[in-house]
Amino acid sequence: MKIERLPLNALRAFAEAARAESFKHAASRLGVTPGAVSRQIKQLEDRLGVSLFARHANGVYLNEAGRRLAQDIDSGLERIAAGVMAAQESARQAPMLTLSAPPSFMQLWLLPRLADFDARVGGIDISLEASQSLTVPAWQGDGARLAIRYGRGPWSEVKSHHLFGDELFPVCAPSLLEHSDRPMTPADLAHHSLLEVCWESSQGVAFPGWREWLEAAGVADRVPPPQRRYSLSGLAMDQAIAGRGIMLANHPVAMDRLKSGVLVRPFGERHVLASPMTYDLLTPQSGKAPLAVARFIDWLLNEAAAFDRDTIGKAHPRRGH
């Protein structure tokens, strides 16, 4: 006989009645009448083909078959309770992912998108580290350590997943363009403060800057070099938003600010400098990601592919990384 074919309500009525050997007690616990409890237990006895209670004028008493069934049901309920508690504890102890990424990329590209991950996927605790130093990723039991890096591959001792390439272009506050009666040209940059981001990747590769952009625009001999330099894109961007100069920005850190309108591109989609560097997700060379971590990786790769498709190189084919 299959357990799923037994009437569960009758089993529950029997369990309650067996504890106090009283149909009245079971009825009070279940919120039904003693007659209803009696009928459910009779249904169970008929299904099992055995009596479970000895019925007397002054009450009911478990017989040997009833005592054995009551013990088995109590044991089963204890196992169910233990399973429920284990499931709840497992839910409380969500897998942990430690993810490191360049500070400005984390602040301006990754963080605004994590709410989407939590809403659509979730199931993992994420610890974020704003760092560009190279650390070897690792699977750690139910957790993991991964890294997003900006540089030039190949990356050694890790598996690399391409996120997207990069392009550089000037951005500024809309107020800098309000009083101009003609479109800005690259030579006009001589009359503005240029905000420079100066830092090196973990590989010792220098971030492309204004020098390369001015040379590509053909005005390196007419525009003075930048006088204001910053170690983080986010710092330079704050100054650009405040109208204190023109920043040479890249898509991941600038795109959301451009969409919001606090920054604009003074040359539109012209005068774009392709960067030789790419953003890559680094994972362990071998081993298998925990399921929740694998879901995060899939989500991140899909987000990066959508961003790459919708923004980078949309107007101009990428000219190499």
UniProtKB/TrEMBL annotation:
One record GO biological process: DNA-templated transcription
Signal sequence bounds: none
Family annotation (SUPFAM superfamilies): Periplasmic binding protein-like II, Winged helix' DNA-binding domain
Keyword DNA-binding listed: yes
Positions of the HTH lysR-type domain: 6-63
TM segment ranges: none
Entry keywords, A to Z: DNA-binding, Transcription, Transcription regulation
Record InterPro entries: LysR-type_TF_proteobact-type (IPR058163), LysR_HTH_N (IPR000847), LysR_subst-bd (IPR005119), WH-like_DNA-bd_sf (IPR036388), WH_DNA-bd_sf (IPR036390)
Superkingdom of this protein's organism: Bacteria
One Pfam family this sequence matches: LysR_substrate
Gene Ontology MF, one: sequence-specific DNA binding
Similarity comment: family membership: Belongs to the LysR transcriptional regulatory family.
Entry protein name: LysR family glycine cleavage system transcriptional activator
Organism name: Halomonas organivorans
